[in-house]
Amino acid sequence: MFVIVGLGNPGREYEKTRHNMGFMTLDVLAARHDIAISRQSFRAYFGEGFIGGKKVLLAKPDTFMNNSGWAVRDIVNWYKIEPAELILIYDDADIPEGYIRVREGGSAGTHNGMRSVVYQLGFDDFPRVRIGIGNAQYNMIQHVLTMPQGERAALLKKAIGEAADAVELIVAGQLHEAQMRFNRKPPKPPKPSAPAEENDKTEPQA
Predict the structure, then answer these.
(1) In this structure, are strands 54-61 and 44-51 parallel, antiparallel, or unpaired?
(2) Cα pseudo-dihedral 66, 67, 72, 77, rounded to 10
(3) Is 0.70 topped by the overall pTM?
(4) DSSP state of 73
(5) How many CA atoms lie within 13 A of 134 on its CB side?
(6) Antiparallel, parallel or unpaired: β 86-92 and 2-6
(7) In this predicted model, what pLDDT tens digit does every residue of 3-53 receive, in sequence order?
(8) E strand or H helix at 87, and its extent?
(9) Count of CB atoms situated within 10 Å of the CB of 147
(10) 3-state SS assignment for residue 205
(11) So what's the pLDDT on residue 66?
């Protein structure tokens, strides 16, 4: 059994904000695989179903982001799953907007929700899918708790779909395939062209 947890903040005011990429990815998976995330326990909303013939549990912690670890710990302890059967999905400001990264394990980085999860579990060797929301050009709290518009909203919607694709591959036992497919680097900005050299020997014009 796989436990797939999307991180975010409960409440309608947070539904479409950058900090709720995990919740939105779970909504895509739930719609694709006809899983109702409607039961409430473990300090989370959750639902059980199947992805590719494998049983899964989709969970949204109801603790607010910074205490996400409470819910994840309760679920992991109850179902007694192995670390490799836990998949976390969340936003990451250190990844360019619209890109995703799939990792087999590793530290929590600067994300407070993941810090809470790793602290409560006592281990970090579980797969995760991170959705890039880009660095803030202003206040970081305002950045993660606002709703992107226009082209940026479309970019993140595409990334959410790719994150759901990556989760499906992980459940199918193809984590490394997910990494090869989605861990692409953003294009480098073009180098500024060198200024044209002046010809000191140009003869004066008539």
Answers:
(1) antiparallel
(2) 150
(3) yes
(4) H
(5) 15
(6) parallel
(7) 999 999 999 988 889 889 999 999 999 999 999 999 999 999 999 999 999
(8) strand 86-92
(9) 14
(10) coil
(11) 95
